[in-house]
Design goal:
single chain; 135 residues; 1 helix; 11 strands
Length: 135
């Protein structure tokens, strides 16, 4: 019960939540392991292994890479989401988007070139089968 073998590891990953407030403007790049909520403005790049949440008053101009994203505000640039992108009714997205899965609420503005990672693999497999049949 009190043996030395039952020590907890201090190497566990801590899920952080970072917030960029409503009247805050950041110009530059952000790299983090934790989640981000953006209610202000970010002009630059953001890269995280967590979730990016853009609030209704939030704006990102630049490049964003994350695991999941919820967009209620505005995004302009290159967005890469490895898992699920949720676009809320108040969202405005323009640019290039690469995602795993997509959820768009009615009323959202989604003017982007969008590609899904799984669909690209399927298309390549189908093209290979067609090429083998014609060869």
């Amino acid at each position: 019960m009190f043996s030395k073998d039952n020590k907890k590891s201090n190497d566990r990953v801590v899920s952080e939540r970072n917030v960029i407030g409503g009247n805050t403007k950041i110009i530059g790049d952000i790299v983090s392991e934790g989640d981000f909520r953006i209610d202000g403005t970010l002009e630059g790049n953001i890269q995280t292994n967590g979730r990016i949440i853009i609030g209704q008053a939030g704006l990102i101009k630049g490049k964003a890479e994350c695991t999941n994203a919820d967009v209620e505000g505005k995004f302009a640039g290159d967005l890469s989401v490895s898992s699920v992108l949720t676009v809320k009714a108040t969202a405005h997205i323009t640019g290039d988007v690469v995602i795993g899965k997509l959820s768009v609420e009615p009323g959202a503005t989604f003017n982007a070139t969008c590609s899904m990672k799984g669909a690209v693999k399927e298309l390549k497999k189908n093209d290979q089968k067609k090429a083998e049949k014609t060869a």
